[in-house]
Amino acid sequence: MSETSPKLRTELEGIPTYKPGRPAAAGGPVAYKLSSNENPYPPLPGVMESVTAAASSFNRYPDMACTGLMNELSDRFAVPVTHLATGTGSVGVAQQLIQSTAGPGDEVIYAWRSFEAYPIITQISGATSVQVPLTPGDVHDLDAMADAITDRTRLVFVCNPNNPTGTVVRRAGLERFLERVPSDVLVVLDEAYREFIRSAEGEGGAVPDGVELYRDRPNVCVLRTFSKAYGLAGLRVGFAIAHEPVAAALRKTAVPFGVSQLAQDAAIASLRAEDELLGRVGSLVCERTRVADGLRAQGWTVPETQANFVWLRLGERTVAFAAACERAGVVVRPFPGEGVRVTVGETEGNDIFLKVAEGFRKEL
Q: 299-315, pLDDT tens digit by residue?
């Protein structure tokens, strides 16, 4: 028998493995998982009922066109159904976008550090990542990103708010950036945390709504998800709003039947419970403010966050800080050598995190 292995694509060599937020270790103290940007609340009213009803027929394939959800999204955002596409979370749609635009010899630009899936899905396609460092304030350097565009650039990600720093780009800067991007380069506004934004007018204006920017810009695509504010992380449903050629390409590259009927029905029910959603998000935003203010009072430098997490730059002490948190009963998300991202979760878990941060700060 031959000992040679099947030939695999060379582009797969060296691809970093996506690292999900680690759950709490079994047998340890009462633990709170603040390592994934999950919503700590249970499903919204009507969601469990819709999922239970859909479960009775999961021996059947789901509606591959996501007809009900697409119609609901069309009404909610006042966009044509033909400008919509769904996928397995916004990251699934992001991968479809790269599959639709970039391959070997092409370039994909994004800030760094930003969402850690970007380099993975770029390399899977065979395209080349162009990583543009954040500013010293951990914000997208849009001027530098525009300068990085070449005739090989096919797609640019702008994560707003940015994961893992929580920082935002504002209207003036983003509009100036979009004016500099060639019309044949797709700009993807990744707005997975859009619902948590509470930023008033500031230098450069308010934080823009990507859906409004897309309307008269054929090269702008907006990503949204039901995983964060809507609390459907385990059901994997996200969507894109883009002009028809891009949306049609996304529907072509989607995995057939990728979004389950449970996810579709739960997303519809969640959209219809928006009043309750806004109340829950408001409570999380208040808790976010309490956590960030508490850290600053301890002496930490915390970037202004408009997401459901906070970012602490710790450099070489990152892993030690994460270990201290875990010993105390909370799990955070370390980026070794850089910092930790900490989700705003249950009040009790946030309190434990703040206590650890206070003690760690005194040791510095």
A: 999 999 999 999 999 99
